[in-house]
Specification:
Layout lengths: L1 E3 L2 H7 L6 E6 L5 H13 L2 E6 L9 H6 L4 H10 L4 E3 L3 H5 L17 H4 L3 H15 L4 E5 L3 H12 L5 E5 L19 H23 L7 H9 L4 E10 L12 E9 L2 E6 L1
Parallel strand pairs: 1-4, 2-3, 2-5, 3-4, 5-6
Antiparallel strand pairs: 7-8, 8-9
Helix pairs in contact: 7-8
The protein binds adenosine monophosphate (AMP).
The site of adenosine monophosphate (AMP) has 17 residues, from helix 2 and strand 5.
């Protein structure tokens, strides 16, 4: 495994004409990330994993400061997985080229996380843009856990780059909590609450699938979840899973959730 601290070096030493799979992450790796890496290893000849906590996608300074950092442990996981290349760039190198750094979202895209975390996806797209301008992987692997992000990156990449996108399903723990680097910041009691919420919404989803009129009960679910101590919903919405519009039927919807578990903001979709 070769660890590159600079994209310049990576570009000099790696042949991006080869069949390379790219897995961008912010580190604190868990089984969700690992499933992306394993997919890349299955499909591609070489796998590149980046670990970069992208400051421009954090709209709150404290969130950036508290974001978990576990580089040593991450490197060990990546070695064990026999990843070929790891990239741990620094902020200056990524954002040196300032004129390319700013990206705007369309008005229609300003929903859910884009609405509640102003600047967040602009930061996500900026870093993806910087990466893909500097090196051109054949494939990129992204998780459905961040579903809105996945659709926005798909749309962004489509007319700009030839990179092919693979989406990987959400990995959950045995209690149905979606794995997230932020879960490290929760204690077992907090996790129990997240598990209750995930199970409630998974059940609700299968009920709506059988009887779409039950979508009208969404507000009762909001009240039920908000009644849990130290839990506060930011949004709970049902949308079309192809285009995120509110025009959906029992076969093409997803339920999207963002909530605070104490001070930790979590997202999921079902
Ligand atoms: P992050 O490190 O949170 O930026 O995530 C890096 C990539 O891993 C993104 O494409 C995420 O969607 C994906 N990911 C994060 N959590 C999970 C999960 N529980 N299951 C599948 N993919 C995930």
């Amino acid at each position: 495994m070769i660890i590159f601290k600079s994209i310049n070096k990576l570009n000099k030493e790696v042949n991006f004409k080869a069949n390379i799979g790219f897995v961008p992450t912010m580190g604190s790796l868990h089984k969700g990330h690992i499933s992306l890496i394993k997919s890349s290893k299955r499909i591609c000849n070489k796998t590149l994993v980046s670990i970069f906590i992208n400051p421009t996608q954090f709209n709150k300074k404290r969130d950036l400061k508290n974001y978990p950092r576990n580089l040593k442990k991450d490197i060990n996981i990546l070695k064990r997985l026999k990843v070929d290349y790891v990239l741990t760039p620094n902020v200056n190198e990524i954002y040196r080229d300032k004129k390319n750094a700013k990206i705007k979202l369309s008005k229609n895209d300003k929903i859910m996380c884009a609405l509640y975390r102003p600047g967040h996806f602009e930061g996500v797209l900026a870093v993806i843009n910087q990466f893909l301008q500097k090196f051109r992987p054949k494939h990129i692997f992204l998780g459905e856990k961040d579903y809105q992000q996945l659709l926005l990156i798909k749309k962004f990449i489509k007319n700009r780059f030839k990179t092919n996108i693979f989406s990987c399903s959400t990995i959950r723990d045995k209690n149905k909590v979606a794995l997230s680097s932020r879960n490290i910041l929760l204690n077992s009691n907090d996790i129990k609450k997240s598990s209750f919420i995930a199970n409630l919404l998974l059940k609700y989803k299968s009920k709506i699938k059988k009887n779409i009129s039950l979508k009208k009960n969404l507000n009762d679910i909001v009240i039920k979840i908000n009644n849990i101590k130290n839990i506060k919903i930011e949004y709970l919405e049902i949308r079309n899973k192809k285009n995120l519009s509110k025009n959906y039927n029992k076969n093409n919807f997803k339920i999207f959730l963002a909530y605070y578990n104490k001070k930790i903001r979590l997202i999921d979709n079902y």
